[in-house]
Structures are given as C-alpha cells and as structure tokens.
C-alpha cells in the first residue's frame, strides 16, 4: 500500500449516478439539443424499474425506457402560445384522447425532496430526497405496497443568514454530502374495501373512478353533493381566527383539491380531462406556466386554491403532453428564516407511472412501517 | 473494475457510454460533488462524441481518453475542488457513502478521519497538474502509461509529477502515517 492506495481508500466515495441522471445523459448524447425538452413521467413498461433491482439493473432499465420513449415524447413540447385557463383546457383536450389502459397494479415511482431550515436564523438548510414507489392493486384483496428510500441528505449553507435566491430543485448549488445513512422503509397493506391512496375527493375505488361522470358539469355536481354530505362541514372548533375560512370558500377549496385528487389517482383519460376542466374553472386556480421540475422536465405548474391562510403555495405539475399529474410542490409565500419568497420547500416528481401486470414484492432489508408519508 | 481496453468508439458510443459512464461520474463526484458530476459526466460523453474523429485508437484506449476529457472539465472547477479538499481537511472524513451502515470501531474511524483530513489538506496544497496525476491514479485507477495518455504528457513527466506529489502527501501524513512501516511501492 502506498499513498495512492491510501487516497483511493480514504477519500470519501460518491454514490452511483441516479437512474434519471444516466437516462438524461444518454438522451443528451442521442440528441444534444434536447437539454430542456425532457419528457414527463415515463410510461412504466412491464420490465421497468423494479423496486428491488440492484443499482446497475435499475440504471440499465431506465436507459431502455427513455430511449424507447424518446421518439414520441420529446418533440411534443408545448409550442402553443396559450396561457392560463386556456392552456389548461387545451391540455384537457389532449388528455381526453389518451388511450384507456389497465393492469393488475397501478405503479408510480416518485422522487420527493423536502427542505428543512437547520436553525432559527437558517444559515443552512438540509435537503432530504426520497425515492418512493407505490403499488395500488386493482383488486381489493391484493396488497398495496409503498416503499421509500432516503436517497441523500444534503446540507446547503446560505451566506450570512440570507439566501441569494429562491432554492430551486432544478438548479445546482454547492453543498456537502452529509453522513446520514440511507434509510429504507415500506408499508404493506390489504385494503379490504379497495379504497385508493388519495382520499381528498372521497374514499374511492377503481370501480368508483370508472363510474364517475366524465362530463365536467355532472362531475362538479357530484363533487358538490359529496361536500354537502360530509359530516364536518363547519370549520373545526378551536381553529377560529387565522385558519378559519367561510363555508363557501371551504367548499371552493374542497372542489379544487377534489379535482387534484382525481388527477392524482389513476383516473381514466375522460375523467382526467373532466378534472382538468373543473380545476381550470375554479376561481382560486392560477396557471403559473411552464417550469422545469426536479427531474429537469418541463411541466405546467398550477397553483391550487388549497389553503389561503397558509404560508405556502400548493402547486401541482401537469404534464402538458398527457394531462397526467407529473408532481407537486410547495413554495414559500413570504420571506422567512432566511428563505426568500418563492423558495421550493418540498416537491414530488413522478418519474415513472403506469399500469402493470407485475406484482409487488416486499423490499429486502427495509423496515416495515404502518404508513409511508 | 472495467478492463481498460474496453469497447472502443468504433463499436459505438452506446457501448462506450454503458461501460464507462458510472465510473467517470464517480471520478468527478469524488473530486467535486454529485450534482456537478451529473452535468460534467454527461458533458464528457458529449465532448467525446463531438471529438470522436480526434480519437486515435492506435495511440491509446478510450478509457484514458475519457478520463482526460473529464479531468479537463474538472479543471474548470478548480476553486471548488480546492475548497472541497480544504473543508475535508478541517472536518476529517465524513464516512464514505459506500460505507454507510457499517459499524466501524470508533477509534478506527477517528484514525481514518485523521488520515483523510491530512490527505485532503495535502491535496489542496498540490499544484493542479500534480493533483491530476495522483487522482487519476487513485480515483480513476489508471496505470501510469494511461495517465500519460489521458493528460497528453510524456511518461517521464507523469513519474516526476507523481514523485513530487507523493513527497508532499507523505509529509502531510506525518505522525499518523499508517504506512510508516510499509515499503514504498
């Protein structure tokens, strides 16, 4: 052993490149001009992205999927000059034409990040990123799996208690790789009634999704009825003051979130289109426009009327090519703790989603928990 | 470790990418950071593709050529790299990513941290051309002749830069040198 061997063994190692990094580099190589025109969530082909695959296999698979999809996904950037509500309605028209798909499981892999101020003055923040895979069974007796792997913990030091600019997951910053061990957790449940993972609209099963009206006016009426039938219509006691919202405003918030919920669930294309049209019509909806998400893809950000008194804005990312939900994020509404207004406080980017006939397997070496957030 | 003869560009860029992307990414990430490596590793292969007509298989293998491109890209981030080594020299070793989860003995870790810190401090103090040589050997796993290929310098120059760098590293290790008894290979 000499100094060179010592350097090799004692200098900190680096994690292997993330599958999307490899896929992106590959895509750039094939089409050097494609740097910003990246596709939305990938179709999950039967062979793609097994949760238990080794890093090498995952890399190889991700490359295959992107290359296979490059032809149809990349050229369709939103060349339309449409803005605001019109843009969302145009995306709804496109969503409606998507083919109806099905399978034994709906599967989605997300990359999720959250930012935490280190201390009161926030001279530093910690950014945790997670890789989350969700398996939702079509049949109610089948198990649902959610697995989460903490990928990286980074800390970002801001100069003298002030951030230079809003933190944006799509940009690069100086940071140190922290020493937090990778954490892996999963939940494994059989939902007897088959209720799906997003309950903001109502407790819905796949059969419910297929039975909901796809005419926007009829769907809106149905959602209003759900709202009226809810037992806890009045604001919860003890939340008087800042958090209290008049009843009509609460109904509006519910309708906005219900539309987002239907987009977040594996709704058939016609229902997705109706949900987009309802969302476009809500008074609190604001189409922010095209943004680059954490995976470097161009999506349309839509601010949702979720919780006006809050200190954060809730935005969903819509894939302009398919009308599918491509992710979500929260941004700071005011400057606080050294983090300026506009700072992305958390985000989720759906890397791959789609139907599959594969079945989930419990991930090895991971801790079982009751719920994956 | 990938065989340094590897696929060459004639067999297609896809094979070259598959064979070498991860190791080039790792080399850059260990000198700079993962985010920068995400970009620079991709740039390395774009440049390799763009300049493929300049690659002469008769003069060397494709792997050292890729490391040479990557090293040139790292050079544009020289300040960040020096800052990284300096920071590491102050904090000692953060436990390597690959070792996470292992329950090493605390004392071993402290000693290892000292070695890492001193090595990092010495790296920060090396001339860039000397640092490139030792890190291509240590992190890239290149042979001396391959380093010469990668940097486009004569073999003799590699040897002299390496000798100079090793003297400085040895000096920095001083009292905590675990090689004290080892032969100078």
From TrEMBL, chain A:
Residues 143-163 are annotated as: Disordered. InterPro entries: CU044_5270-like. This is CU044_5270 family protein. It comes from Streptosporangium saharense.
UniProtKB/TrEMBL annotation, chain B:
Gene3D superfamilies: 1.10.1740.10, Winged helix-like DNA-binding domain superfamily/Winged helix DNA-binding domain. The keyword Transcription regulation applies. InterPro entries: RNA_pol_sigma-70-like, RNA_pol_sigma-70_dom, RNA_pol_sigma70_r2, RNA_pol_sigma70_r4_t2, RNA_pol_sigma_r2, RNA_pol_sigma_r3/r4-like, WH-like_DNA-bd_sf. SUPFAM superfamilies: Sigma2 domain of RNA polymerase sigma factors (SSF88946), Sigma3 and sigma4 domains of RNA polymerase sigma factors (SSF88659). GO terms for biological process: DNA-templated transcription initiation. GO terms for molecular function: DNA binding; sigma factor activity. The keyword Chaperone does not apply. It comes from the Bacteria. Pfam families: Sigma70_r2, Sigma70_r4_2. Residues 118-169 form the RNA polymerase sigma factor 70 region 4 type domain. Residues 18-83 form the RNA polymerase sigma-70 region domain. Keywords: Sigma factor, Transcription, Transcription regulation. NCBIfam families: sigma70-ECF (TIGR02937). Belongs to the sigma-70 factor family. ECF subfamily. This is RNA polymerase sigma-70 factor (ECF subfamily). It comes from Streptosporangium saharense. The lineage of its organism: Bacteria, Bacillati, Actinomycetota, Actinomycetes, Streptosporangiales.
